[in-house]
Amino acid sequence: MSGNGAVWGRVRSRLRAFPERLAACGAEAAAYGRCVQASTAPGGRLTKDLCAREFEALRSCFAAAAKKSPRGGL
């Protein structure tokens, strides 16, 4: 079981760094938020895939941020 400590240490390290990495996606998050907000404003109508382009950009940014290793390692 001593090997599990090393695994949890790496997991904790990645989880701690995650909010900082996601902060790099601010522009994508703002664009998606603006799209959704405009669609749900009075008179607007949010439908499936209406903001798909913005969502895909945000998802791609999150995925890239999640793949980065903490502190430049691994």
UniProtKB/TrEMBL annotation:
Signal peptide range: none
InterPro entries per record: NDUFAF8 (IPR034595)
Gene Ontology biological process: mitochondrial respiratory chain complex I assembly
GO CC annotation terms, alphabetical: mitochondrion
Domain of life, per lineage: Eukaryota
Protein name: NADH dehydrogenase [ubiquinone] 1 alpha subcomplex assembly factor 8 isoform X3
Species for this entry: Mustela putorius furo
